[in-house]
Amino acid sequence: MALQRFEIQETGSIGNDGEEAHDLCANLLTIVSVIFAVLTLPLSLFFCVKVVQEYERAVIFRLGRLLDGGAKGPGIFIILPCIENYTKVDLRTLTFDVPPQEVLTKDSVTVSVDAVVYYRVFNATVSISNVENAHHSTRLLAQTTLRNILGTFNLQEVLISRESISTSMQTVLDEATERWGIKVERTEITDVRLPVQLQRAMAAEAEAAREARAKVIAAEGEQKASRALKEAAEVISQSPAAIQLRYLQTLNTISAEKNASIIFPLPIDLLAKFIKQ
Predict the structure, then answer these.
(1) SUPFAM superfamilies annotated for this entry (predicted)?
(2) Which residues pair with 16 in a beta bridge?
């Protein structure tokens, strides 16, 4: 135990000594850089004075370490020559299109889906220090997230539930990119393309459904018409005068069509008398 404590104390002592040496060296180089910038005035102003716009921030590194105070900007800031460099970060909302993804849905149907993602950098320092390329990483993550989420839905849900799919995708992306300093504001499913054979099958199914509905409607109409005709026949049969009026109405309709011949229907009662004789 004593040996282990000694090793731990020795390691900590070495680490503290290295940190102190680095700080001492950094301070010396900083002093030299400031002196050099002062001696080369006003020429050094062109290299030391930098400007970032309202929508930008500058992440400054001094001797490979992040400068205290976080990102600089907007406005003017100073870069010490030889020991400091900086990276500009755009804080505006950016968009990118997710390339078409061939996805196998839950019911084993292959579809091609496009999407668009809206995002922005909310922490410039983290987006530079925690990931090599935050924008490229977000694009790759959006592709895999889209495939993974669509794999949990069947085809019918993919076609009618785009809003819920977009919300789920935004939530997953936002949680994953938060440690990169990225805020995913919105995702949208732009297009869902089905295989040609499946489109034809769905069109045939829809056409068959429409024809079936048309036949049902026609059958219901025939049924209602037959009932109305039956009721009319019962009413007319109770009155001989009504039958004669119906004959005259039929003759009027036939004569209005400019036919060459006209058929005069005879009352059945009159024919019955001749049959008896």
Answers:
(1) Band 7/SPFH domain (SSF117892)
(2) none
Predicted local confidence at residue 269, as pLDDT: 57
Q: What is the distance of C-alpha 190 from the center of its chain?
A: 6
Q: What does the block give as tokens for 111?
A: 């579809």
The overall average pLDDT reported for the chain is 80
Residue 271: per-residue pLDDT: 53
- Helices (H) and strands (E) counted in the chain, each on its own, are 9, 8
Residues 188/107, Cβ–Cβ less than 8 Å: no
Task: Answer yes or no: is pLDDT of 116 > 70.
Answer: yes
Domain boundaries of the chain, sorted by first residue: 2-90, 94-198, 222-277
**pTM summary value:** 0.65
Label the pairing between strands 94-104 and 84-90.
unpaired
pLDDT in tens, 39-50: 888 887 888 888
**Is residue 96 a contact partner of residue 115, using CB atoms and an 8 Å limit?**
no
End-to-end CA separation in angstroms for the chain: 140
- 94-198 is classed CATH 4.10.640.10: no
Question: At 101, is the secondary structure helix, strand, or coil?
Answer: strand
Residues 215, 153: Cα–Cα separation, whole Å: 34
Give the pair of three-digit tokens for residue 47.
């290299």
SS3 of 196, please?
helix
The H-or-E segment that residue 50 falls in is strand 49-52
Question: Which of 110-114, 163-167, 198-202 is least confident?
Answer: 198-202
The tokens of 46 are what? Answer: 């062109």
What is the structure's pLDDT at 41? Answer: 81
